[in-house]
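Fold description:
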Amino acid sequence: MIKDTYKDAIRTLNSLQTNASFLEQLRRERPDPRAQLEAMRGFLERSGLQVEDLDGLNIIHVTGTKPQGSACAFTERILRGYGLKTGFYSSPHLVQVRERIRINGQPLSKELFSKYFWLVYNRLEETKDAAQASMPAYFRFLTIMAFHVFLQEKVDLAVLEVGFGGAYDCTNIIRTPVVCGVSSLGIDHTSILGDTVEKIAWQKGGIFKPGVPAFTVPQPERPLEVLRDRARELGCPLYVCPELDAFEAGSQALELGLAGGHQRSNAALALQLARTWLQRRGYEAGPEVLPEVPPSTELLAQPSVPLAPVFRPSDAMIQGLRDTEWLGRTQVLPHGAVTWYLDGAHTTSSVQACVRWFRQAAFSHDKPQDGSEVRVLLFNATGDRDTAALLKLLLPCHFDYAVFCPNFTELSVTGSADQQNFTVTLENALTRCLENQKTWGRLLEEKGGQETPWLSPPRQVGGLLEPAPLRGGGAALLLVPPAERPLNSPSLVFPCLSHALQWIAQGRDPHLPAPPPKGGAHPQPVASSGAVLLQEAATIHVLVTGSLHLVGGVLKLLDPSLSQ
């Protein structure tokens, strides 16, 4: 019997290993990283494609630590506004695997996903021999499949987000992208990419190609020097993007579809990537010519890397920035008395940005006239990330409760094949959550009532906190007076997300069932006393952050339509 359904495809895909085991495979291959690209070329050829076939995809190749996915989303949305047929390959997915491969901004349909999955899978099975008996791992397989999709569906361009690093990432088998981009750099995947920002910058700069223009957002001096040296080594013209303020000179502020001050640098990068792609592909001669305009503010290039030009964004660019959507990143879901704030931040820099966004978003929310406002943190982190460093950055939010939970939506994963991870057991995941809970308690004890040095204090006007102004119309992080919210946050661990969300919402989110009766699944005193507080609160603000897989699981439960 021919297996051609979507569920069959997902189950078979999962058998190729999940993300965690792929990272472990990369660690084993690290002594000879060039072997990764050679293996990828071999898999591509076995699937029926040559590397040369990818030259016609008009690729925009983007790397960075986080959030390069947002920069890709801005870029894709802008170019789609020019009437171009776009392909977009990103990772990870939040709810369904087919989100990783998009045509014109929409996830591949289940029918098309099944069609191309079995096309590639069967070709790879048929070409096994004594010398090439293996199948590509999960991420490599999806990358090959994305290339097939984009070629067969005849996209005008493909926005390609790097998976891990850059130099030896499997997406880097491409030879001639139209333009490359590097978003903000930080520490992540240290066991693969290196334990310093400079080492990571070397990896990221590996996507540069001879004669292909590349753009980076402003970076710290040393990482920028590494990118500059890599660009010179590879014969690539590199430019630093001016801040978004420069594009707003003498005109209305640009509205971004993605919230958070950190998204402004991603938008500035996207403008340069889109404009350069249009120029290099001859679209500038169309009806929307982009005249350069002098910057109204003083813009200095960072050391020995020239500044990219400032230009007046076209109407399509302005609308594209405004209409960009990217689930699970600075996303707010108001559900009755409960407001969910979702941001898959898992590096120190992205958690800092997440906290700034959350504090401003929660501050702008209508304050309850009667009753209390309760804040809850829902957190998980996986892999080799420094959980203590991430949790420490979340302390200034002064949560009333901290909830730690694995990325499993249910205790049984039956029916959730898209989110299965065969390499992580419930026992291991819960052990990590218990460690995170202990870390949180220790941080609270150490912190006491100290102020957080990296935050500027707000001004107080008439007893209210006023956000300090920032360039570009943003606002500084809002500090809640310690006396109002002492650093005393009881914490709980739940075995799955459905249990955690039910306890947090206490039947007050119409999208979630009520929790079990008292004395059922939550016998802990903290759970019982907290349930009363949550039931009586006027509003509940929940920040869901850490692993993107955690955010995806929460989205799956809060918005079942995403699973259709």
Notes: DSSP finds 18 helices and 16 strands in the chain. Residues 426-447 form the longest helix (22 residues). The chain has two domains: 6-323, 331-563. Confidence is low (pLDDT under 50) at residues 285-289, 449-486, 519-523.
